[in-house]
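User: tokens in, sequence out, please.
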């Protein structure tokens, strides 16, 4: 590893990201280039065409001197270099950029002395196939869905035993669904627009408690969302309520986050709910909060599981579902 080059790569990536020129990025340190490209294709549900001629270049083939080197001798070395190019786990990055910005991206990489170790290796394809080309031949070509189902096979089988098998099968089938775009984003709004502004009184910032328990780690994102929406977000841990340092009566609402309470053990959200239900002071405090006509509450992930088990104290919640095991619905569409 060259630490100077690594630092240069990090600076270059930050520069490109700040300029909005990076569409995707993945390191190749776990599984090599082939695994990296497959994971990127799996995430976006698209094919990728890659040419490894430069990565598998054989210097001996161009310098045979006075000796005659048979093609079969070169082929052995060529195959070895191909495997090294595809599966070595040395530090490296795969960047996806727009075709019309390749020149400016390369210029930025050269400014960081990375030009000599950067190659253009391929692009996405519309045929949903992962294919590797070398010497003007496709040496590997398999449908992305077939590779992804192989990749997911063990997890799918475990999920069928551990969770609801119908939901596990539904998620597994999504891999071959042509209409599922994976993690691709298609925004229908301008994220820079302050959509909350017309609905919030000027200068008024209602206080909302960002409620968390041991293991919860999404409080920053939730607080940021409420802050942008015009609220004053206040960090409130369950111990603050238990010890009396904070009262729910001081807030117009609370948001209970996830990611995950009690290490995401099965029923972790239920444990959070029992902290409230089996503590007289907390039970009374939450019941009074839910009984107000000027309050609101939001449960996210394990916070949703927690709130579903507080239905007995929430007016109008008698028909709410009960999330006994948060992983019961594995399928994205089932949610």
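Assistant: Sequence out:
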């Amino acid at each position: 590893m060259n630490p100077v080059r690594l630092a240069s790569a990090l600076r270059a990536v930050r520069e490109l990201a700040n300029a909005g020129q990076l569409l995707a990025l993945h390191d190749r340190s776990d599984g090599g280039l082939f695994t990296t490209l497959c994971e990127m294709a799996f995430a976006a549900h698209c094919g990728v065409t890659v040419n490894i001629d430069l990565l598998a270049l054989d210097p001996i083939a161009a310098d045979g001197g006075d000796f005659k080197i048979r093609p079969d001798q070169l082929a052995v070395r060529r195959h070895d270099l191909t495997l090294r190019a595809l599966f070595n786990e040395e530090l490296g990055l795969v960047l996806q950029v727009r075709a019309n910005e390749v020149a400016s991206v390369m210029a930025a990489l050269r400014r960081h002395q990375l030009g000599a170790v950067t190659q253009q290796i391929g692009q996405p394809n519309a045929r949903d196939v992962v294919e590797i080309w070398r010497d003007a031949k496709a040496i590997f070509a398999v449908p992305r869905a077939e590779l992804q189902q192989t990749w997911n096979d063990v997890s799918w089988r475990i999920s069928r035993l551990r969770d609801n098998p119908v939901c596990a099968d539904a998620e597994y089938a999504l891999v071959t669904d042509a209409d599922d775009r994976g993690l691709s984003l298609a925004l229908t709004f301008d994220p820079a627009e302050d959509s909350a502004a017309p609905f919030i009184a000027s200068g008024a910032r209602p206080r909302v408690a960002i409620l968390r328990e041991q293991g919860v780690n999404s409080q920053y994102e939730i607080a940021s969302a409420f802050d942008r929406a015009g609220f004053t977000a206040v960090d409130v841990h369950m111990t603050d309520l238990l010890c009396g340092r904070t009262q729910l009566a001081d807030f117009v609402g609370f948001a209970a986050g996830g990611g995950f309470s009690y290490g995401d053990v099965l029923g972790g959200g239920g444990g959070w709910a029992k902290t409230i239900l089996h503590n007289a002071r907390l039970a009374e405090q939450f019941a009074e909060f839910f009984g107000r006509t000027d309050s609101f509450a939001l449960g996210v992930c394990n916070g949703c599981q927690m709130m579903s088990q507080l239905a007995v104290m929430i007016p109008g919640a008698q028909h709410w579902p009960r999330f006994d095991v948060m992983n019961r619905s594995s399928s994205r569409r089932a949610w």
